[in-house]
Amino acid sequence: QGELQQWGAGVLKPSETLSLTCAVYVGSFSGHYWTWIRQSPGKGLEWIGEIKESGRTTYNPSLKGRVTMSVDTSKNQFSLRLTSVTAADTAVYYCARAKSLYFGALSVPYYIDYWGQGTPVAVSS
Amino acid sequence: IQLTQSPSSLSASVGDRVTITCRASQDISDYLAWYQQRPGKAPKLLIYATSTLQSGVPSRFSGSGSGTDFTLTISSLQPEDFASYYCQQLNSYPLTFGGGTKVEIK
Q: Do A113 and B86 touch (CB under 8 A)?
């Protein structure tokens, strides 16, 4: 199995909710930024957002409040929910791990070193 | 922050030196990474912090730049290098990617 294994529904109807989960099999679950990225032919790679093991999240404002991320530290898993999907949300969705860069007690994402295998999601009526 | 990659595609031969440019719409210091993506696969990290080669990546790959202008250079193109390449800025949120450069066989 890969270091990050993701799963979730691949076909949705407009207005439904996209739900994906990613299991982590590499390194420690703490100290990294657990990230979701999507790739569509029209928009290239788009950063959706990230979550830390503490549950602290940062989302892309372009998704206008439709995104929720969560973590389950007991299972080393993190999840993505995207509500009210439309055809514009059709894409391959990737989970990923971003390494942290520390400035004393503070950290920022530094680079993405592991990716999931990708989940194609199609939104169609 | 918008990242503009150029060219969007290029044709080259094995052994050629290839340079891809990534321009940021504002100063991102050196918080730039480069990824390679083969068809049907997830991106793979090549370089981070503008010029630091990820472990296991061949030394024919190199990165340079600072501020707003960055380059990825492949010193001698190999058959396995025909792929798409993306830059990513990690200076400020939302994190963003360049539009990509597809390297094709001439």
A: no
